[in-house]
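Sigma-54 dependent transcriptional regulator
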Amino acid sequence: MSEYSNTANPVRLPIVLLVDDEPMSLQVLRRTLDEEFTVLTADNVADAEKVLSEIPVQVVVSDQRMPDMSGTDFLTHVRTQWPDVIRIIISAYTDPVDLIKGINEAGIYSFVPKPWQPEHLILTLKNATRLFALQKENELLNLELKVTAPQLDSQLQHKRRVLKERHHFDNIACAPDSPMKGICAQVARVAPYDISVLVTGESGTGKELITRALHYTSHRADKPFVKENCGAMPVQLLESELFGHTRGAFTGANTDRVGILEKADGGTVFLDEIGDTSLEFQVKLLRFLQEGELRPLGSNRRRKVNVRVISATNRNLEAEVRAGRFREDLYYRLATVPIHLPPLREREMDIPVIANRILQSIMISYGKPVEGFTDEAMECISAYRWPGNVRELENEVRRMLVMADDPVLGADLLSPKVLKNVNSDEDEDMPVSLEIGSLKDRVEVLEARILKETLIRNKWNKSKAALELGLSRVGLRAKLERYGLEQHKLGNE
């Protein structure tokens, strides 16, 4: 049984087909996606194929476990009959065999794990429909332009120049007195030499940014840069991704596959989250680094590969070595030059620079220009510790821009977690923590923070703040005077 949804506007919205034998799952998915897409549903493979043959579907989202056919088998058939359709699997199961089969045979664009998050699912489908549109546009352009080899070479050279300029150390956002200046200078000195670099630091500190700058300022800049995230990936799948495999090497390996180490020959391979790999994989990686040769899974032939390996991790690898979870010999192979990136809370001077750079970028992406941040907003942003580092800061700026109605982004647009952690300079005479001082002191600190957060969120409108806090205007004004908050800003009465 197939079902249509959002038929009021079937042409303008991207068309997505959902395939699942559970009606409740289809209903929840359709309700989640209905505003962004024209949603078609099918609770069996036969109905899904009928829809595909009659309607120009752009994306198929299939459950993995269905009674008449598995999701990967169904999408393998879709790839044969309707190769342009973007294929996505939703599954609560992460069997490596299914993953490999999905990649090799079904040409899966993305795996969405259950339980899925609405925001992540919608973003994945938007990217998939965008990819479909770009593929179609590319086909039309190729037909119209009949691009010649010299033109392609010129375009390729232009793209390389753009990448080199974009990923240069000078483009890394930081203040003049930032510790990142010294780190960039150190990495720039290392870049021309084929030497292993290990980049460490918390998640979101910019490890990939530094790695790309290292590649695009090296003599390998005109060769491929390939990234592989090693975190939480099954050993067999990770080996297949890096070293490749031959047909029949394991269940689901129906064709030969070239690994990324071979694809990146002459260039740079970035192994992210190297600290999460197994000891079994570490042995094979060490052998490759020592010999410069790889052997695809299932093959007896070795192949010479010339790549520069740069690795990164948010773990303390020296501690992992002492605990026996990471090979010492591999550590010294990878960490010829160790580079540590400090978290954002240790380089507060960079926060305004990075926030403004992020804002300039997303204004262009969203087509929504603003003048910038208010002084109060930047004060709050700079005072927050940003445990998620630059990635968390980027999400916060995106949220502010999307929610903004005024030409300047005010502090009232900040999320509660940022406002709750703001301590003004006027609070310095109070205990800096709720864990020290007398009960009276701690209550006063908490009360002052709540007052300031509420005022900022209400744009310093005292009437609204008093109403929210259950205070009279006279009572609120007395508390503001007591904590020195009156001098901050006299907002609308």
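thats it. The domain at 2-139 is CATH 3.40.50.2300 (Rossmann fold). The longest helix spans residues 118-145. bye
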